[in-house]
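User: Structure please.
Assistant: Input sequence and predicted structure:
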Amino acid sequence: MFRHTTTIGLRETVCTREILSRSAGVAETAWGPIRYKLSEGHGVRRLKAEYDDLASIANRQNIPLDVVRQEFEKTSK
């Protein structure tokens, strides 16, 4: 920076990053398996179903995506 600019000083800030631990799994539902990602730590637990699995089941069963998602949420608790 000093070689390529006219500045006589630089400011530097060091920071840390906190992350949630991550893992993956499969939940068995009445319509078949649904893959999911789990993030947890620091008092937080988040479970997110794979959209492709939800959509595939919804299309095969001819039911709304939300119904499949609700079944996943009941099964995975």
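The radius of gyration is 22 Å.
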